Amino acid sequence: MGALKLCFVVQRPPYKSENARLALTHSISSQTAEIHLDDGDTIVPTLIFVGDGVLNAVKNQQAMKHYGVTSTENHIKNGLLIDMPVWICKEDMQRLGLTEAQVITDAEEMGAELKMKFASFDEIQKEMEACPHLLFF
Predict the structure, then answer these.
(1) HSE of 108 in the Cβ direction (CA atoms, 13 Å)?
(2) Is residue 23 within 8 Å of residue 47, measured between CB atoms?
(3) Most buried one in 3, 32, 44, 55, CB count within 10 A?
């Protein structure tokens, strides 16, 4: 009985690519894999935004208007709703001139209790080192 830890690391911006959306979809749906595990085993996904990937967490993007696809904002909020840890790199936010007020911090309007974790790259590095399964997007 144990936890299978998965880290989904998003490094690319949300524009003109499906990579970020795939990371979001796979991280949320990874918990459905539990039906294939032994009794008592669990999947523990963590979604991490680093580099230009932090742009995925900017609030009020108009992906439908500009690209004809749904926003990553709802996917991130759905992740928080199912209690999936979502981390964002503070240094990359600073590098891109983003403040906490400009990014998704929670999904309280959906009833989620978990909030986005603003982490240093050192903290993120430790989390990735502790994770046996890294998936980069």
Answers:
(1) 4
(2) yes
(3) 55
Residue 37: predicted pLDDT: 66
Using the Cα atoms of residue 74, residue 82, residue 134 and residue 57 in order, give the sign of their dihedral.
positive
Q: Is the CB of residue 28 less than 8 Å from the CB of residue 77?
A: no
C-alpha span between 68 and 119 (Å, rounded):
32
CATH number at residue 59: 3.40.1260.10
In total, how many domains does the chain have? 1
DSSP string covering 74-113: HHHHHHHHTT--EEEEHHHHHHTT--GGGB----GGGT--
Domain coverage including residue 70:
3-136
What confidence tens digit (pLDDT) does each residue in 25-83 have? 888 887 666 666 667 777 888 999 999 999 999 998 877 787 777 678 888 998 898 89
